[in-house]
Amino acid sequence: MMTTLIFATNNDNKVKEIRSVLQGKFHVISLKEAGIFVDVPEPYNTLEENASEKSRVIYLMTGKDCFSEDSGLEVNVLDGAPGVRSARYAGDANNPEMNIEKLLHEMDGKVDRRARFRTVISLRLFGQEKQFDGICTGTITMLQQGSAGFGYDPVFLPDGGDKTFAEMDLAEKNLFSHRKKATEKFLDYIKESSWPG
Ligand code: IMP
Question: pTM for the whole thing?
């Protein structure tokens, strides 16, 4: 039987993306599917601390193996902003349209459009934490292109790609994705530590 892992998130897009990598290896369930209806806090200024806090809270609540992830878009010319505040860049509501609008406005006239997505996964097995990160470098486009994906996908062109994340299906995004890279490190670790078994 496949091991179940609770993914400490309410973001269905993140669940879909991570499930596509862990499919057939782990049974991943979201907080909703685990019957946990909480908005897990993200009180810190780093992805590492927020990821750790999310998995810690869910482990304390359930006593079960779980993982979380915190991610963000880091723009060179904005000194790494929006970074850990990516979801709420334009205000508390986590409105992706307004976040993109603010980003394009902040980058108006900027020649250097380099940016990167970064994900930190915090895995808790038997309460013990291990973290994995994944980075995808790219550039911020001048205009929005595409409608797939979520968040800043319509304005992010990954290095080596010829379209934005929002113009790619999941398999294509996975060729570049920060989240995919972090999840693969997670899988390598599990393989090396021969857990579960
Ligand atoms: P959090 O990890 O829940 O704090 O939020 C991460 C935020 O970063 C999302 O709401 C998006 O705005 C942004 N983000 C992270 N990963 C991606 C991605 O793969 N595509 C587009 N936006 C992303």
Answer: 0.96
Query: 150 alpha carbon to ligand 1 midpoint, in Å?
Result: 8
Q: What is the pLDDT of residue 196?
A: 65
Residue-level pLDDT at 197: 42
Domains recognised in the chain with CATH numbers = 4-192 (3.90.950.10)
**CB of 70 closer than 6 angstroms to any ligand 1 atom:** yes
3-state secondary structure 10-67: CCHHHHHHHHHHHCCCCEEEECCCCCCCCCCCCCCCCHHHHHHHHHHHHHHHHCCCEE
Ligand 1 mean position to 3 CA, how many Å? 27
* 84-92: Cβ within 8 A, 24+ apart: 84/42, 84/44, 84/45, 84/46, 84/47, 84/50, 86/151, 86/152, 87/151
Number of alpha carbons in the 13 Å side-chain half-sphere of residue 54: 30
Catalytic residue among 12, 39, 70, 162: 70
- Ligand 1 lined by 158 (C-beta under 6 Å): no
**176: Cβ below 6 Å to ligand 1?**
no
**Residues of the chain falling short of pLDDT 50:** 197
Q: Given this model, what pLDDT does residue 194 score?
A: 74
The pLDDT of residue 2 is 87
pLDDT for res 46: 98
